[in-house]
Amino acid sequence: MFVDSHCHLDFPELRDELPQLLAAMREHEVTHALCIAVEMDAWPAVHALAREHANLYASVGVHPDYQDTGEPTQALLCERARDPRVVAIGETGLDYYRLTGDLEWQRQRFRTHIRAARESGRPLVIHTRAAAADTLAIMREERAGEVGGVMHCFTETWDVAQAAMDLGFHISFSGIVTFRNAVALKEVATRVPLERMLIETDSPYLAPVPHRGKRNQPAWVRHVAEEIARLRGVPLEAVAAATTDNFFRLFRIPRHAL
């Protein structure tokens, strides 16, 4: 079986088709998914998905791209993380690709999330783009390794992956690893130990081959696992079992049959 460790089922592209998406997950043996929050105003919808469906879980956090939105406090993040259906803090991190200028507010927001994760004991879901050095520096300064977490939708170098793993983090691969031109990322996917790896869709974005260019969905996380298995020359079942076990262990979710 497979688990989608990062999706956005509350986004308008997906939320009106939830029954079909859940049915497709069952058909493709995708048993669970983590619905990721990107801003506080939208969090109730993410939380509702996790409350209403036993195989869906939620995070709480504010994405680094969301500048004009309510700023989360450490206390508020911790309060919402106390809910048993909320298993992570994030997504959080740094993104210097889309935004320019003085981004100190982004770094301070990231620090707030890490402090909330340490206080609440929840792992972190970290987004980094064009900001790897600062991301790792803040993770070290704020002792993110005390709670660990995942570097989601990883597109950085092996050195960055190794540094994150040294801090106790997992590396998550999305549909990007199936793209023909993602040569360097494919190499990273052959080197990350299976016991430190997760897979994801980042739905509705980044649909994997053979669906590239279409709206993504959790059922298609299977294609990510298939590509990693092909690259590593191992059975698909080995990638499925490892990434599924890692998901439940990292997010401290009891295993249960559905």
Describe the 3D structure.
By secondary structure, the protein is an alpha/beta fold. The protein has a single domain (2-250), classed as TIM Barrel. It is built from 10 helices and 8 strands. An 8-stranded parallel β-sheet has the order 1-2-3-4-5-6-7-8. Helix 6 (132-141) links the parallel strand 5 (124-129) and strand 6. Helix 5 crosses helix 6 and helix 9 (221-232) packs across helix 10. It starts with a strand and ends in an 8-residue tail after the last helix.
Give a quick summary of the entry.
With 258 residues, the chain is α/β, with parallel strands linked by helices. It has one domain (2-250): TIM Barrel (Alpha-Beta Barrel).
Apparent shape? globular
Contiguous low-pLDDT stretches (5 residues minimum) are none
Number of E-type strands: 8
Radius of gyration from CA coordinates:
17 Å
- Give the distance, in angstroms, between the N- and C-terminal Cα atoms: 12 Å
Would you spell out the secondary-structure blueprint of this structure?
Elements: E1 2-7, H1 12-15, H2 18-27, E2 30-35, H3 43-52, E3 56-60, H4 74-81, E4 86-95, H5 104-120, E5 124-129, H6 132-141, E6 149-151, H7 158-166, E7 169-173, H8 183-191, E8 197-199, H9 221-232, H10 236-250
Parallel strand pairs: 1-2, 2-3, 3-4, 4-5, 5-6, 6-7, 7-8
Helix pairs in contact: 4-5, 5-6, 9-10
